[in-house]
Amino acid sequence: TISALRLEVARLRRQTEEWQLRNLELHQAMRIANATGGSGTDGAAERILEVAKQQAQRDEELMGARIQVSELQGQLLEARELHTALKERCADFERQLARTEHGGGLGRSNIEYLKNVIFKLFVLEDGLEKLLPV
């Protein structure tokens, strides 16, 4: 996607340069028409019309490119936010894993305690009352 954006920007720059060259040609044609006394005004008017059409087309392309850029910037912002959220979630999981690894003995002792309580409930006649310390 980034390489596609770079290609699009390069294409737009080339088109801008072409437009600038055509604009220069138009100004030169107008100077020549004015210098000859207006005999080439029909040709100059046609050239002006042609360049105006080209400029309108380029303006449309430019607007489309600007819209695309703004959409891509929005997508980039969303992707960055998602990336940040995923990094935070990953860090949370790593902390939780570290706690589990360091507290592995605690988890085993909890299971051992639960096993002993259940065993007492089954073995003792009145297990529930004898388990309650009073």
Automatic annotation (TrEMBL):
Per its UniProt entry, which superkingdom is the organism in? Eukaryota
Q: Does the keyword Coiled coil apply?
A: yes
Which keywords belong to this entry? Coiled coil
Coiled-coil regions in this chain?
69-96
UniProt name for this protein: Uncharacterized protein
Question: What are the top taxonomic ranks of the organism?
Answer: Eukaryota, Haptista, Haptophyta, Prymnesiophyceae, Prymnesiales
